[in-house]
Amino acid sequence: MELFNRELSWLSFNERVLQESLDHSNPLIERMRFLGIYSNNMDEFFRVRVASVIRLVELKQKKVEGFNGGPESLLKEIRRRVLEQQQQFEISYQKLFQELKSENILIAREEDLNTSEKEFLTNYFKDTVRPSIVPIMLSTKRAMPQLQDKTIYLAVKMISYDKSKVKYALIAIPKNSPRFVTIPTSKNDQKKMIMLDDIIRLNLAEIFSIFFFDDISAYTCKITRDAELDVDDDISKSFIEKMRDSVAQRKLGETVRFVYDSSMPIDMLRFLMNGLKLEAGENIIPGGRYHNFKDFMSFPDFGLKNLVYDKRKAVAHPDFAQPGSLIKTVIKKDVLLNFPFQSFQHIIDLLREAAIDPKVISIKINLYRVAQDSQIINALISAAQNGKKVTTFVELKARFDESNNIHWSNVLRENGVIVLFGVQDLKVHSKLFIIKRKVGEKTEVLAHIGTGNFHEKTANVYTDCSLLTANPVITKEVDKIFKILKNNLDRSIFRELFISPFNMRRKITSLIDDEIKNAQAGKQAYIKLKLNNLIDSPIIKKMYDASQAGVKIECVIRGICGLIPGIKGVSENITIRSVVGRYLEHSRIMIFANAGKPKYFISSADWMERNIDKRIEVTTPIIDKEIQKELSFIFETLMKDNQKARIIDQHQKNKKVKTADGEKVVHAQNELYTYFCEKAKIR
Question: What is the pTM of this model?
């Protein structure tokens, strides 16, 4: 069966992010920030995916899915593509540098400064930066220090006056100082800034003043480490203790990438590689003058509104627009919230209402990722302090959020909330809560099933759906899930919800099989699918079968896609688009023709083996006809996009969808924002 390789497909996705930095339809500073997003993505790619391929090499695996060769060959191909993208990255940065200059925004280097600017930055260095500088002298006589992941280092080379001696040192660029510093200028129409890296370069002579040298220079480098957590099996430790220890050990993970300034002298590069016990190979990446471009996600806007995205305020959902009880509204009818177009504040307000509603007796919620200053957590604490029985299921294994989740677990417990840690060996990735009210002799129950986390910050930039419902058919099954989370031995029958790892694969397969049967019988047959990632081999095989049977399949896949569309005799009836733009497309939507009576679903799960077989995930049917129409409109708008959509084809060239002569320009995310504004009666 023909498939795209997962890692190479991911690199293709990140190339789409990089393309946004070159897209002149994006405001200038936002394009610079796309470089930061690209860099942040690449860091995680090496920490997680490349680390996994390296482990396959160590295990002497001979074959890699979707790739004509073994893991060693795959590492070489990854390196080739990363270097190719690195060149595109540098070209983009230099273009943006010049475009900023034309807007009178100057990014200065230490050699570009006049006397008064140098004096200002020297004083800034002494007052703000110098206390955090810890220079490390390097020597062949002692071991190289353990370099930290996510930290930028300046490798310093000092040459004596008579050139008889060379000294090397390392300086970790402080994380507690801003990466970008604005320089006061006498020109009112000019904005001038400098990178923290170059402020340190400017003051190298002061840092190493005890040495006599003729020349001193500095070159950036950084280490990326394997982010896999090894949780020990010491039965004397609690799970939270094991996770805390494992997160600490991550800092010492194996090196999966060493990135260095390509202008670094060869003798210094060899010295560092020898000291770090690195060998030339696929994980040694030459780069530019600056690393950790992820900081450019916060590139300053200097108050220039024309160079950043216009401010968009999330609008109210029409059913929640008027003052009154949100809970009573949901009891009467299903509500679907669409973020970031509609306000995530509705979710917070609903939980706050539950916290003080005298009829509410309990709240159960599962938390995967939450904001560092989470209002969701505050609402749950308020509920507990108001006498409600509040139970949270916290996922401690949420990658890179482990420490934050450990912190919030402790805070919740200290404030009377029952904290449980989900299911052993299964990540709890579902997005659920359930609220129970006692009204006379009757118990009212409402539930939330969503595609995104209870995270008010990401809700501003991720597109996600949240279903709020009091439909007893759905709420009873959501309640069953919480019983499973509490008691791992519980197993229930689910008729409406698809629950990983219990019935999700069987239900999805059955839906595709039904479309195949309908196509063969001459009935209406199609599948419309919106996901982040599609790489599950058995499901892809089933989709190929559906295509061959005549089922029309349209997909919007933002990230990794293992399915290859357009293969003659295999996938000719499958088209795939990827939309990368201002918002990160995160919602999962599924629509099946069902012989003219379409079935609609939203889900927390991508179609990946881990999501279907190794996590707790939830897919819910959407029963309300108006909400079905809304989901259909969202999907069709994304498929019509001809501004931010790329074609996923056999060649992975990421070609943009072209606008035909006279064809309407469709920017899906803008169209959807306008649609939800109109629904909220905002002009």
Answer: 0.91
